[in-house]
Amino acid sequence: MKKLLTLILLGAAMGMKAQNVGINTADPKATLEVVGTPGTSSVLDGIIPPKLTRAQLIAKTGYGTDQIGAMVYITDLSGTIANGTPTANVKQTGYYTFDGVRWSALVSKVSAYVDAGVVVSLGNINVRLATGGNRSLEIAFTNAVARVSGTSINNTLSGSAAIDGSAITITAYGRQSASDGTSKWTSNTFLRWQPGLNFSQVGASQQILLNDETNAITYRITFILGTGWNNNLISIELL
């Protein structure tokens, strides 16, 4: 009797229509519909999937075709990944989905138009344009890394940006590391990738291929300068 009453109360709270299930609605419009309470500021809406560390996901070896479409949220990059394994592409924190063979990041690119000093982030990497001195890109990592290397191409158009504007191209290679193996880039500390650069003309651009050697992650960063160092495009891609 107690179990029957529990089922009745649960069904009333969730709402059921034929084979559809609704939470906070008695008229679900799909297999599962969750209705929030956007008008109540004290109620925190959202759906939270299982949260695991990378090491915990690596240890779960039973995923197969029956788990296609599964989603998890990776909270840290503990554990060591290996090529050819289901978790080989788990290289940043965030949402991952399973396709029956491997886990893939739900978000692998982010782009935004931001003013100088505003941070654009993807996984472990954070990028912004400096607000003073030479206006070059500054990069930080949420979790410290020991070695970072990369190549960048910088284009500065003379005058206003135009198809026929003459371009000066600077190709630079850089590596930040510590000889004793400790983290050169400490957590959440911004360093300038090319501190000698000073982007000053609208349309000036930079593209950086950046390799986080510590975690075997490669990023492509694209930057285009806006007017007055505002409304700048910063794009980060996980390669």
Describe this structure in words.
- The chain is 8% helix and 37% strand.
- It has helices at residues 2-14, 54-59; strands spanning 16-17, 20-23, 32-34, 51-52, 71-74, 94-98, 103-105, 109-114, 120-122, 125-129, 137-141, 147-157, 167-177, 191-192, 205-212, 217-224, 232-238.
- The protein has a six-stranded antiparallel β-sheet, with no helix packed on it.
- Strand 10 (125-129) and strand 11 form a beta hairpin.
Overall 3D geometry? globular
Overall strand count? 17
Helical residue percent band: under 10%
Q: Reading side by side through the largest sheet, how are the strands ordered?
A: 8-17-16-15-12-13
Overall number of structural domains: 2
Give a quick account of the main beta sheet: strands, pairing sense, barrel closure: 6 strands, antiparallel
**Uncertain residue ranges:** 4-9, 158-170, 178-183
Amino-to-carboxy terminus distance: 57 Å
Mean pLDDT: 82
Radius of gyration, whole Å: 24 Å
Q: Can you write the helix and strand succession as a string?
A: HEEEEHEEEEEEEEEEEEE
Structural class designation: mainly beta
What is the count of DSSP helices, taking H or I runs of 4+ residues?
Answer: 2
- Beta content: 35-45%
Keywords: Signal
Brief overview, please?
The chain is mainly β and 239 residues long.
Topology of this protein?
Elements: H1 2-14, E1 16-17, E2 20-23, E3 32-34, E4 51-52, H2 54-59, E5 71-74, E6 94-98, E7 103-105, E8 109-114, E9 120-122, E10 125-129, E11 137-141, E12 147-157, E13 167-177, E14 191-192, E15 205-212, E16 217-224, E17 232-238
